[in-house]
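Protocol step 4 of 6: record predicted structures for both targets in the notebook before any analysis. Target 1:
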Amino acid sequence: MRAVVLVGGQGTRLWPLTDEIPKAMLPIGGIPMIERMVSFLATHGITEVVLSMGFLPDAFAEGYPNGNCSGIPLHYVVEPEPLDTAGAIAFAATHVGINDTFIVQNGDVLTDLDIGTLLATHRRSGAEGTIALIPVDDPSRFGVVPTDESGKVLGFVEKPASGEAPTKLVNAGIYVLEPSVLRRIPAGMRVSVERDVFPAMATEEALYAMACEASWIDAGTPATYLQANLDTLSDPAGSVVDKSAQVAASAVVERCVVLAGASIGENAVVQDSIIGPRVTVGASAHILAHSVLGTGAVVAEAEYLNNQCRPEVT
């Protein structure tokens, strides 16, 4: 069983962290996000992973130069130009010759859902594609996916108004697809699997879904990336601090991610924020409320940042 993992996006929601690091290579609890995803796939019987890349592809080859991650062979496929999600799936799958049932996972999804059950559900239904669905408290932030009793997808409702959603189930970003889906995607064109391919399949009653009760997070925003890191800790007020970072004994660092080579000065206060690689935080500075500092950024002594982004130093 092979899986295509979509890691080609520019990660704009996580700017400025992603100026020089692809989103899927950012660490979660000290381990690159892609490595956590590949390990998850490996525990569910995936034997090869195809990385569909576009933005900063060399970072993956540099991170895994022997083409192996968590004991799983990696295949690197680089889009010649941005092809959107469906275009990227088709380009990668065709490039490596996928001709059997395969898995697709978005490159910012961290979950423990049971792919084996998803695959079994897919095979029982005889569907051309099956989507994993996850319940969320506030579906107005997502596109929801209503289904009938058999799991057949009835359509897609994008960001319904609060209280008006037909279901709280949203696309979890993990799919089982038959190779016939690839023939639905014009070669070399920008095509969205969520907006173009899946709605067409639903109209033809070829798309099913399975609701999953599982942990799940889309770690593609500062808030969710921070939360994904904090979820690796037992202390809810703790922080994830890279071993190469330097934090002054008098500094207060709570519910933060502090990446490699960062330095936090005396009496600084850093809360609920992300401190990028090689960032310097001056003495008595305050960095609060989901502020994000890009690679090498400098915060002056006693400077105050609240819910702000500071670009990397070039």
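Target 2:
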Amino acid sequence: MRLPLKDSDYFVIRVNETVKTIDEEFFNFLKPKLQMKKVDVMLGDGTITNAETFDLTEITNEFRRILQSLKDWAFTDISDSKTEDLYRLYFQITCNVDKFYIYGYFGIQFHALHYYKLDKEVINIQKELIKLNHDVSDSFISLANKGNAIIEEELRRQGLDNLSFEELFTKIYENSNLMDNLEQKVLKLEKRFPVVQDSENKREQLISELNDMIIKLYHIIPVKIDYNRLMQGEEGVISYFEIETIKNKKTGKREPYLDTKKFNKEITEIVTSKLKEIAFSLKELRTNTNKKVDEDIKINTDEIY
């Protein structure tokens, strides 16, 4: 069952309160790292513009800090996924507590936008590509005209020049030798136009160089989102938990249904205490980060005076 649970008994109230605290601590920990910063980038037409992004590497490092701080929790490596320009960066944790299996998901959902580096070489490559495409287009037209003439002559030689398109298509389909013969003549013609292949190779090289000049900027709205908003593709910070009853510890069989009204205060305390470890770790990490920032500011101030 996904938390928060929909009921009002003691177990549900206490667990929901604890999960809410974790959610707030995780968001407060990440929010300062998700502030958008302005950078200069180049558009496809060479225009220089101002865009915003956040440091994805820093978020990855902060996720590692969280995982390193959690004791007795199993966890996955930090993962990412994308659908077109919508990205996710996340990690998952699990723990068996008494007769319960607890699963936690922590992550962010954001968009990636593509720009070019602020480099005049981008313009130079684009100009070269335009000229090359023009030259290749002229060569292709010449090659196509000569190829059509060769095919027409071969069809005339074999008495097939007066057939309708459907009839000619049937003849070629039924006569593999005719198809092979026409292909060979066209291939011989193409070898007389090496500039076409050379230009195509050069074009691929330039496109590859241009792609290397592309950079990704990441956009996020630093707000809390729930599971439903995650599935709807909204940007933001997410954490959620699922809890199941372990029916058989040897086989690992679990039951998603929880009869929470039967859980006493002792069981409730066991579950909430384990969850509170996460909230405590997040709060401690945030406090230590703030202390370091204050110390850095003090050092810089002392240097001024």
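Step 5 preliminary note on target 2. The chain has two domains: 10-119+215-304, 121-212. The CA atoms of residues 173 and 179 lie 8 Å apart.
Proceed to step 6 after PI sign-off.
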